[in-house]
């Protein structure tokens, strides 16, 4: 039986910007086959592919796979999945989408042309950097931290963030999912900028990383003394993420646009 598949550019309102994710909505009786899902994600060759399946209670199961492994938390593919479900009519237009995931229940709701997602905060604690990290990044850090998934590195300015050209061979040996590099923004439209590198999970540079903002939000809230901010992820594609810190939760705010609809045969 064919399976619907969509490609959605997340954290942008324009095609071919932001972060592309594949989304496969599955029927309620579909087998939840991790091996098949991993094979599909490897075929799609995007940072993440989301698989979503309705539950008997009206909520949804959601899993995310990179081309090489299943991941614990993914913002842009969650945004893409919610966008697809509303656009296709699988979830009524005014209804909140509630996803059961490896990181707990995540919700998404529409607010005008934006989608708000309720995610866990993932603050970073100060940490010593493994030697390969500094050597790979080729920068002088102002702060190094670590949460359960990633390293967080603050550098002096936006120009350093934008000019970075890490040694991916060395960075692949750093334990963890990836490395977030950030600084204050030079532009008034944004509070901070970032980039995200994750060669260990098959993604040299992720275009826009929602889950990284679960770490960036608490970090910059403490630095800037504000709880509602906008960040720009300065990858070649680029994308905008709204962040609102609410205690141990973070509201991620973004836009999305569908660029492809098809079937897996």
Give your account of this protein's structure.
Helix content is 20%, strand content 40%. It is α+β, with helices and mostly antiparallel strands. It folds into 2 domains: 3-121 and 253-264, Diaminopimelate Epimerase, Chain A, domain 1, CATH 3.10.310; 125-245, Diaminopimelate Epimerase, Chain A, domain 1. It is globular. The mean pLDDT is 96.
Note the gap between the termini.
Answer: 7 Å
What are the secondary-structure elements, in order, as H or E?
EEHEEEHEEEEHEEHHEEEHEEEE
And the CATH topology of the largest domain? Diaminopimelate Epimerase, Chain A, domain 1
Radius of gyration, in angstroms, nearest whole number: 18 Å
The CATH fourth-level homologous superfamily of the largest domain: Diaminopimelate Epimerase, Chain A, domain 1
Helix content: 10-25%
Total domain modules: 2
Query: Which runs of at least 5 residues are low in confidence (pLDDT < 50)?
Result: none
Helical stretch count? 6
The main β sheet shows up as:
18 strands, mixed
Provide the CATH architecture of the largest domain: Roll
Secondary-structure topology with pairs:
Layout: E1 3-10, E2 19-25, H1 34-44, E3 49-54, E4 60-65, E5 70-71, H2 75-88, E6 97-101, E7 104-111, E8 114-120, E9 125-126, H3 131-137, E10 143-146, E11 150-154, H4 158-163, H5 168-171, E12 178-184, E13 192-198, E14 203-206, H6 213-224, E15 228-233, E16 239-246, E17 249-254, E18 256-264
Summarize this entry quickly.
The protein has about 260 residues and is an alpha+beta fold. The chain is built from 6 helices and 18 strands.
Kindly list the characteristics that best describe this protein.
265 residues, alpha+beta, Diaminopimelate Epimerase, Chain A, domain 1, 2 domains, 18-stranded mixed sheet, globular
